[in-house]
Here is the input.
Amino acid sequence: MSAPARVTTVRVLVVDDHPVVRSGLVGMLSAEPDLEVVGEAGDGAQAVALAGELAPDVVLMDLRMPVLDGVGATAEILAAAGGPGRRSTPGGRTADRAAPRVVVLTTYETDTDILRAVEAGATGYLLKDTPREELVAGVRAAARGQTVLAPSVATRLVTSVRGDRLTDRETEVLRLVARGLSNAAVGRELFIAEATVKTHLLRAFAKLGVDDRTAAVTVAMDRGYLTSS
Here is the structure.
């Protein structure tokens, strides 16, 4: 008889400056058998400190907070972890474990807020009116490395770029992704920051109507965007 499948627990750090909201999120996530809330933070600076200490898999990040906002905290958390794909070793945890995925959870959805969060390295952007099931699914998806966007946010990303065709830079990024390069490797190849690579990918996702790298490459190839010049 085969052994039962092992359930992977996703470690979550909840960051929100409103105690009632934070408590509600903690209670909701803790009720899920595969999610473990390992810490809570009431501002961005505290979030940075706890992320380094607790090494969560996902940081559920409020956007507008005192001391340090969510964008600043996201950038500092990922920088301290060495960027996606690397992590320091608090408490002796594995050095090569992927850096935490940051999912912004906010009431704000302006183009500026969205792009600042994405450029800082956020994996997802959800709104506080997101249904419970979708929020929980979003945390799980982020832990797997998938991009998580509220439908209205995805729409804004589409309308914030001009036209439906990929830019030259977005095409360059997707060509390298098609070769199997990670975001970090793409950044090194093109001499741009990894956060910038992620921004180009998210805009390409929005234009192509997809939500992951594999689908983006497939659709771009089907549309002839990645053919050799």
Q: What stands out?
A: The first helix runs from residue 19 to 30.
